[in-house]
């Protein structure tokens, strides 16, 4: 394997998870975040993800990988369309159910993800305007990196499609180290599903669309649920005080 590919894998497996965990730990130190902090986070994430994806695409093509091998193609258009539709519907339904379940939990039981949602997700119209390109960036860049480059690299290195699928999912889950054990496990399962879709269709399109829909649903709907939960807690406290 070329030296630059080794460097990319080491960065994705070690440096990126640690940097992400450090960044999230810093965010959680804020009691609340301001619009300025959130917008700065969106813009810096967009820039860093495009930079990483561009470097990886550059090195991959320089080493002879084609766009077709990286999944940036539609070798089976009909199958890709059907898989995209079914997978997106399933991911969207699961995300909506998860958000609804979250809304039923007492605020005292919140874990790291609701805490992040309160600090990271958009709170007004201007932030939503910046959040949409963030979602599109993450959906494209992360799928190119993990389901495109990493999965193709493992496939070429081992000759096994199963190892390629598992390896891609492992690195994808590792990148979400900041989410804790449950978050890593859930991300691994999602990564497996996206990797299977990519291997089956030969295209990144199903995973990109599903990834974008999942992130958009979480970012645009979760803040409303948080607001409703907070309002419900305040009303409960008022009733308790009156009694």
Question: Could you give a quick summary of the protein structure above?
Answer:
The chain is mainly α and 243 residues long. 82% of the residues lie in helices and 0% in strands.
Describe this structure in words.
The protein has 243 residues and is mostly helical. It has one domain (3-230). The chain is 82% helix and 0% strand. The protein is built from eight helices and no strands. α5 runs antiparallel to α6. The longest helix has 38 residues, at 205-242. The radius of gyration is 19 Å and the shape is globular.
Write the topology of this structure:
Elements lengths: L2 H26 L6 H28 L14 H28 L7 H9 L4 H34 L2 H14 L5 H22 L3 H38 L1
For the structure shown, list the relevant keywords:
about 240 residues; mainly alpha; 8 helices; globular
CA-based gyration radius: 19 Å
* Percent of residues in β-strands: under 5%
Number of helices: 8
How many DSSP E strands?
A: 0
Mean pLDDT rating: 88
> What share of residues is helical?
over 70%
> Describe the biggest sheet?
none
Low-confidence stretches: 234-243
Backbone shape = globular
Structural class from helices and strands?
A: mainly alpha
Distance between the termini: 71 Å
Number of domains: 1
Order of H and E elements: HHHHHHHH
């Amino acid at each position: 394997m070329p030296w630059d590919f080794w460097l990319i894998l080491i960065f994705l497996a070690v440096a990126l998870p640690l940097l992400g965990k450090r960044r999230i730990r810093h965010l959680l130190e804020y009691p609340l975040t301001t619009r300025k902090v959130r917008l700065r986070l969106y813009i810096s994430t967009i820039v860093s993800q495009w930079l990483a994806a561009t470097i990886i695409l550059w090195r991959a093509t320089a080493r002879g990988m084609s766009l077709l091998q990286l999944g940036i193609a539609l070798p089976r258009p009909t199958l890709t369309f059907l898989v995209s539709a079914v997978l997106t519907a399933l991911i969207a339904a699961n995300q909506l159910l998860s958000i609804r379940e979250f809304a039923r939990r007492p605020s005292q039981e919140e874990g790291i993800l609701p805490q992040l949602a309160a600090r990271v997700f958009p709170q007004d119209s201007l932030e939503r305007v910046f959040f949409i390109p963030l979602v599109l960036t993450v959906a494209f860049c992360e799928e190119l990196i993990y389901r495109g480059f990493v999965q193709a690299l493992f496939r070429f290195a081992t000759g096994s499609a199963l190892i390629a699928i598992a390896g891609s999912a492992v690195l994808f889950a590792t990148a979400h180290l900041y989410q804790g054990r449950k978050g890593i496990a859930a991300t691994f399962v999602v990564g497996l599903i996206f990797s299977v879709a990519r291997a089956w269709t030969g295209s990144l399109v199903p995973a990109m669309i599903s990834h974008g829909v999942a992130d958009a649903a979480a970012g645009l709907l979760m803040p409303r649920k948080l607001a409703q939960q907070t309002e419900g807690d305040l009303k409960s406290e008022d009733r308790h005080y009156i009694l």
